Amino acid sequence: MSTAIADPRAPQAAVRRKGPNLEKAGWIYMRVSGVVLVVLIFGHLFVNLMLGEGIHGIDFAFVAGKLASPFWQWWDVLMLWLALIHGANGMRTIVNDYVATETTRRVLIWALWLSAGFLIVLGTLVVFTFDPCLGLSDTSADWLLEQCA
User: Where are its TM segments located (predicted)?
Assistant: First the structure.
């Protein structure tokens, strides 16, 4: 009994599934988010490392000052969201490529999205609820006590 193997260059019948094409949306997201992330990250690095005192000026006061501005809050949150979703989508692609069993694949993909979602929620809360005056004591720096008074 012999079985014929199809010619790999032979045209295949296209099977079109109904519903949204999530793989295509993920592929487009990776390209668009990658370009936006390059702009966000290099802007972040330029402001933090090149302007002002450079790396020597980065301290708690610098971070508190940046997080007091809605512009920088949204900049950081956008960078956080795009990077975490971009990374989780990339890991999802790797899991789909290399994990053979369907059950293991589903567990890993669920774990990826749950951990990414948890980190997104936690990071967003930190950025928007950051209060440098919370928990001050008498041993805090003088400049911080003056700002919070």
Answer: 26-51, 71-95, 107-130
